[in-house]
């Protein structure tokens, strides 16, 4: 076990490195309002966060990460462009893996700059690659924006696209929705009976639960509309499913995605942005010819990212989490900006893991 003093010293050194890039050191409260985090991530976050309550402030969460409070701070008072760095504890519940830490030190670097998003993406990735050099880590990259653009351009109802978009970060649920919208899974008998009933509320007994009758009626109407909508299929469905499986060296992966853009033309702007990012990474000295790109990368753990995503991993150590992760979160600044927004990208490192890997080399 790496001594806490060593971890704090490494965290301070990383923060100082980011300060030399022009980053301002900031701090955020350890206790964060649960209402905001639940609004952003849904109830799923309860399984990963420590929740407590306060008589005056209501539900609170031990800080699960820094990005949300840093974005809040910047959108409330930050000048632009801006760069921030921070270091401190984050807290994550571990219900299935007792060997994973539930409290650890995290160091971050965030860039708020609307000048050149490709250059900002490359700046963050290259800086992380530099500070992690020597650990022989595997770098993985992706772009959630390509898949989001594909869903947005589907020839189907707005309700179906909204449902798919909402579950992009839950691949199993996303897959189940695709199967349902494509007509590959039968409608459950109970739903068929509900939709065919002239009066769904007849003989149901007293109304209980948190949903009102109006909300239930709207849901039934939406289900009826979906039931008569044409199934999603054809070349678009095949291309979307192929897109989600694309993986390989970045140039080859993007060539595959380019081919799919014939059936999914809505992805072309996102694809152009990805190519611009690769060019910016080349300028920074990154070997993009061998850089791994996966169209579905980040879909299970990066819920507020909506563009470029990346991570650094120890090869052959599937028992360890990522040593560093990051990506672009423009949409988050819109959610927290009270009418304003700014392109933003950043990432976090785990100095404790860095020291652990160094000790074994």
UniProtKB/TrEMBL annotation:
The keyword Ion transport does not apply. The keyword Glycosyltransferase applies. InterPro entries: aa-tRNA-synth_II (IPR006195), aa-tRNA-synth_II/BPL/LPL (IPR045864), HisRS-like_core (IPR041715), HisRS/HisZ (IPR004516). Residues 12-361 form the Aminoacyl-transfer RNA synthetases class-II family profile domain. One of its GO terms (molecular function) is glycosyltransferase activity. Gene3D superfamilies: Bira Bifunctional Protein, Domain 2. SUPFAM superfamilies: Class II aaRS and biotin synthetases (SSF55681). Keywords: Glycosyltransferase, Transferase. Homodimer. This is Histidine--tRNA ligase. It comes from Seohaeicola nanhaiensis. The lineage of its organism: Bacteria, Pseudomonadati, Pseudomonadota, Alphaproteobacteria, Rhodobacterales.
């Amino acid at each position: 076990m790496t001594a806490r003093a060593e971890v704090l010293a490494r965290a301070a050194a990383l923060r100082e490195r980011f300060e030399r890039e022009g980053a301002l050191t900031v701090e955020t409260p350890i206790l964060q309002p649960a209402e905001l985090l639940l609004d952003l991530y849904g109830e799923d976050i309860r399984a990963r966060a420590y929740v407590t309550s306060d008589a005056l402030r209501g539900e609170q969460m031990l800080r699960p990460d820094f990005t949300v409070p840093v974005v809040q701070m910047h959108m409330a008072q930050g000048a632009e462009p801006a760069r921030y760095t921070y270091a401190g504890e984050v807290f994550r519940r571990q219900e299935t893996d007792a060997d994973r830490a539930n409290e650890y030190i995290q160091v971050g670097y965030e860039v708020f700059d609307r000048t050149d998003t490709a250059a900002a993406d490359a700046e963050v990735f290259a800086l992380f690659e530099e500070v992690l050099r020597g650990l022989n880590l595997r770098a993985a990259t992706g772009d959630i924006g390509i898949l989001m653009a594909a869903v947005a351009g589907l020839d189907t109802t707005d309700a179906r696209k909204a449902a798919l978009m909402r579950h992009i970060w839950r691949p199993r649920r996303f897959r189940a929705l695709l199967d349902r919208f494509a007509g590959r899974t039968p409608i459950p008998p109970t739903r068929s009976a509900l939709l065919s009933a002239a009066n769904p509320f007849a003989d149901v007994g007293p109304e209980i639960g948190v949903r009102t009758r109006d909300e239930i009626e709207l849901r039934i109407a939406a289900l009826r509309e979906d039931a008569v909508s044409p199934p999603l299929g054809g070349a678009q469905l095949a291309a979307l499913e192929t897109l989600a499986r694309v993986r390989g060296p970045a140039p080859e992966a993007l060539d595959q995605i380019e081919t799919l853009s014939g059936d999914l033309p809505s992805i072309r702007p996102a694809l152009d942005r990805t190519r611009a990012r690769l060019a910016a990474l080349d300028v920074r000295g990154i070997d993009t010819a061998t850089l791994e790109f996966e169209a579905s990368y980040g879909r299970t753990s990066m819920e507020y990212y909506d563009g470029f995503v990346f991570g650094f991993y120890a090869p052959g150590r599937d028992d360890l989490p990522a040593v560093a992760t990051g990506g672009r979160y423009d949409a988050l600044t819109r959610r927290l900006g009270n009418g304003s927004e700014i392109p933003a990208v950043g990432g976090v490192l785990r100095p404790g893991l860095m020291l652990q890997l160094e000790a074994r080399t």
